[in-house]
Design a protein that fits this description.
heterodimer; A: 442 residues; alpha/beta; D-Maltodextrin-Binding Protein, domain 2; B: 311 residues; mainly alpha; MetI-like fold; 12 helices; 69% helix; 1% strand
Chain lengths: 442, 311
């Protein structure tokens, strides 16, 4: 074989090499999700809490939507719950946001602060949704942003719930607790470390703050996160006393490994029976039913505080938001509306174990028969119930809980920090955040 | 002697000039893609980090963003977590590199000997190096899991208690992470040292044996001096990698419990990802860059890398 070396071939080789390097760079740019030749518009949809079960549910909803809207194709991207914020923030910074994203009151303040979301008020009104969707959920969605506009269409709600493995309680002859004292007694009676059974499952790791608030405000009866002067009530003496009692469970009625516990481990412990009582939001209902059977799962709302009222926290609203940069806002809104309409709302709420926002769906048989959902709805609808509104409108709300409080909480559980020190630090951080928020909006 | 003859034809002269230019530009054209990539992926991020380190930049609080001079660096000096993460980082690097070197050296010496099944032993020893960081974490998370891990089975045997995990205690989490990283890191040293052992001069060993030198004497006087440069290079590379280790620690412990395993790069990741404080995160990155650079230069200086011991 004769090899010919020429300047031409050398130049061509250099050009080819350069092209080979540059082509992948260009390819990294990705598509814009726009319409294609057959007139079908493709919209990008990101799920921020992707799990296999959620992905399956959402794909079912997408299939139904596409069948009814043949001019729209939905491209689904599932993001893990522990890293979606980073990906979304990067997408906002680089202008590569999708059309629609699953959102909640914990996210929207951050994304609105970056000017990333499109207000949906006009579309919501024009679609006639105010009469069909829970007004309290809509109000909650509006309450977490400074301009009180609607940046995501609420399709479901969550409430914190105390989960009980009823089968174990019955087997051990322990009565279902109805007061905080009975709860502590039950946790003690159900603890048998020698056979790997602990009365309560603690959340010491990621996402610990809702469990702390639930136990603390539920017991103390303190009704608001801030007092009238904008000082956080976290270190109110009643809260300190309540949390000290709650921390006493750790290592005694819980596994010591709960120090770093997060959602996945907690649900696994509950499913295996190594933990009997647990606080987690109502979204894990289907996981518990699958593991234990509906007959063995009971979901309770907080017991009345010593002062009388029931105080619930963690009343979260979730839905679908549209990015301001969406190139297909009309199509994106049609997809969002599908989550509000009875068919899509029922599938989504039932399969994800959440409270539906659609008033018609909320009266369907499946939800009437779901005891934990009914308990949550009853507690939230009871005028005597105090609902602790967490200040999700503070852009630093989640960051303080995650970066400051989570490590300190583990220090408290290990005995390296007192509950008072922990709550003083937490209260100071949130009071400062609230002060700068008030100054900004005033 | 070669002579060049200059043509009087201007066309020929022009072609000659073009040819020389083409020849002269070829190396630059060949280097261009690499230079472009270096500029895009190395220089730009470095300059960008430098720029942001002088800014208050938080994507969720854009109203406060702006130039703040050296405030981020001043805040860093008063940040307890910065200093504690620096201590954890130093401890992590020294322990990891030290233990990986010792175990890697011992294993390399063993598999350098001739014995039956040596090929299989080498394959088994090297295999953890082929496992990705996230997969390594998953394996060790399962091993440390209180429900399905080693502690659970020890408790079944009556050794220890149920519901415990090495990762769930400030006293043991660091060493549990060390063990997981050792599993992955030792093969690196074994491979490098074994490769260098292959080129050890056999005649020196024979001469030493004739002179009555025992195994230990031969190791100290021949093997170790021969491996000197490999060891310096391997410890330096591994030291830099361990300093920057984020994947295993982030996924295995998340820096916890109570910051017991929060190294400086992990702290940077948390500041940037969780707090969205990109300005402060950039300042921390600059600090890490400077510290790593100084330590590297000092290490190379102290070890006289590339020179013979008596040079």
């Amino acid at each position: 074989m004769k090899i010919v070396h020429s300047r031409k071939s050398r130049s061509a080789a250099i050009a080819a090499a350069t092209a080979l390097v540059l082509v992948p760079l260009a390819a990294c740019g990705g598509g814009d999700g726009s319409g294609d030749a057959d007139g079908v518009v493709e919209i990008q949809f990101w799920d921020t809490q992707a799990t296999p079960a959620r992905t399956e549910s959402l794909n079912e909803i997408i299939d139904l939507f596409e069948a009814q809207n043949p001019d729209i194709r939905v491209s689904y991207v599932g993001l893990p719950s522990d890293s979606y914020e980073q990906k979304v923030d990067t997408a906002i910074a680089t202008g590569s946001t999708p059309d629609v994203i699953t959102a909640s009151i914990t996210d929207s303040a951050n994304w609105v602060a970056q000017g990333a979301l499109a207000p949906l008020d006009d579309r919501f009104e024009e679609g006639g949704w105010p009469d069909l969707i829970s007004a309290s959920m809509v109000e909650t969605a509006r309450s977490v942003v400074p301009d009180h506009q609607l940046y995501f269409a609420p399709d479901t709600g969550l409430a914190n719930t105390m989960w009980l493995n009823l089968g174990i309680l019955e087997a051990e002859g322990v009565a279902v607790p109805t007061t905080w004292d009975e709860f502590y007694d039950a946790a003690e009676q159900l603890t048998h470390p020698e056979r790997n059974q602990f009365g309560y499952i603690f959340r010491g790791g990621a996402g610990m703050f809702p469990q702390v608030l639930d136990a603390m405000y539920g017991q103390s009866g303190v009704s608001s996160f801030f007092d009238d002067d904008g000082n956080s009530t976290l270190n109110d003496p009643r809260n300190v006393a309540a949390l000290e009692r709650y921390v006493g469970l750790f290592g005694n009625q819980t596994a010591s490994a709960d120090l770093t516990n997060e959602y996945t481990n907690m649900v696994a412990q509950f499913a295996s029976g190594s933990g009997v009582l647990m606080n987690h939001n109502i979204g894990s209902y289907q996981d518990h039913v699958e593991a234990l059977g509906a007959e063995n799962v009971l979901g309770l709302q907080p017991f009345p505080s010593a002062g009388g009222p029931v105080t619930v926290s963690g009343a979260t609203v979730l839905g679908q938001a549209m990015f301001a940069e969406s190139e297909h806002p009309d199509e994106a809104w049609r997809f969002i509306e599908f989550f509000l309409a009875p068919e899509g709302n029922a599938i989504w709420a039932e399969q994800s174990g959440k409270i539906p926002s659609n008033l018609e769906v909320a009266e369907q048989d499946w939800i009437v028969e779901a005891q934990p959902l009914q308990a949550a709805i009853a507690a939230l609808n009871d005028p005597a119930t105090q609902v602790l509104r967490e200040p999700f409108y503070l852009p630093e709300y989640n960051a303080i809980a995650k970066t400051q409080l989570e490590p300190m909480w583990q220090a408290v559980l290990q005995g390296d920090m007192t509950v008072q020190e922990f709550l003083d630090t937490a209260a100071a951080a949130y009071t400062e955040a609230e002060a700068s928020y008030r100054e900004r909006v005033s | 002697m070669a002579m060049s003859v200059k043509s009087s034809d201007p066309l020929v002269n022009r072609h000659g000039l073009l040819a020389r230019m083409r020849r002269g530009s070829t190396p630059y054209l060949l280097l261009a893609p690499t230079m472009v990539l270096l500029l895009v992926f190395l220089l730009y991020p470095l300059l960008s980090i430098g720029y942001f380190s002088l800014q208050q930049y938080n994507v969720s609080q854009p109203w406060d963003n702006g130039f703040i001079g050296l405030d981020n660096f001043r805040a860093m000096l008063a940040d307890d977590l910065f200093w504690s993460s620096l201590v954890v980082t130093a401890k992590w690097v020294v322990v990891q590199v030290g233990l990986q070197l010792v175990f890697g050296l011992v294993l390399a010496l063993i598999v350098n000997e001739a014995f039956r099944g040596r090929g299989l032993a080498r394959a088994v020893l090297f295999s953890p190096w082929a496992v990705s960081g996230v997969l390594t974490t998953t394996i060790w998370l399962l091993l440390y899991n209180p429900a399905v891990g080693v502690n659970r089975y020890l408790a079944d045997l009556g050794l220890g208690e149920y519901g415990t995990s090495l990762l769930a205690s400030g006293d043991t989490a660091f060493w549990a992470a060390v063990l997981a990283e050792l599993w992955r890191g030792v093969p690196f040293f074994t491979i490098l040292i074994l490769a260098d052992l292959q080129s050890a001069p056999g005649e020196l060993y024979e001469a030493a044996q004739v002179d009555g030198a025992g195994r230990i004497r031969r190791f100290w006087s021949i093997t170790l001096p021969h491996l000197r440069n490999s060891i310096i290079l391997a410890t330096l590379l591994r030291g830099v990698w361990e300093f920057n280790n984020v994947d295993l620690l982030y996924t295995l412990t998340g820096g916890g419990p109570a910051n017991a395993t929060t190294t400086l790069p992990l702290y940077v990741a948390r500041v940037a990802i969780d707090s969205k404080e990109f300005g402060y995160g950039s300042a921390l990155t600059i600090a890490a860059f400077v510290i790593l650079g100084l330590v590297t230069v000092l290490y190379l200086k102290l070890t006289n890398f590339g020179r013979e011991p008596n040079e």
